[in-house]
Amino acid sequence: MAQVKTCSPTCIFFRCAKNAAVYRRDGVWCRWTEEMCGVANCTYAMCVKRRLLPRGICGETVKRKTTEKKPEEVIGPTIKLRGRALRKIGEKEIF
Fold first, then answer.
1. Domain residues for 55?
2. Does a structural domain hold residue 4?
3. What would the pLDDT profile of 57-84 be if each residue is shown by its tens digit?
4. Nearest-angstrom CA–CA distance, 63 and 49
5. Which of 25, 39, 45, 90 is most open to solvent, judged by the fewest CB atoms within 10 Å of its CB?
6. Is the residue at 23 inside a domain?
7. Looking at the domain assignment, is residue 7 inside a domain?
8. How does pLDDT run across 3-55, given as a tens digit for each residue?
9. In this structure, is residue 6 part of a structural domain?
10. In total, how many domains does the chain have?
11. CB-CB contact of 29 with 9 (8 Å)
């Protein structure tokens, strides 16, 4: 995780749920706690893009890890039907 960055309250997508963030010269001040805004330990910190991860990490800077799975693993076992479901669908087994 070399490229992971923490979210800052000066980001254009950052929002405070309590509307308590006040932008000043030296940084962002929280009127709710009367101290500097800390995204990592604030329960009211939000991201407009919904990319804020726990501990204040910006999800825009995290790279995804994808893995290939065989189709058999994704589909899973078949389900046997009977009764009303069998009459509606018309097949004895579905995937």
1. 14-94
2. no
3. 888 888 888 888 887 777 767 777 778 8
4. 16
5. 25
6. yes
7. no
8. 888 888 888 888 899 999 998 888 889 999 889 988 888 888 889 888 888 88
9. no
10. 1
11. no
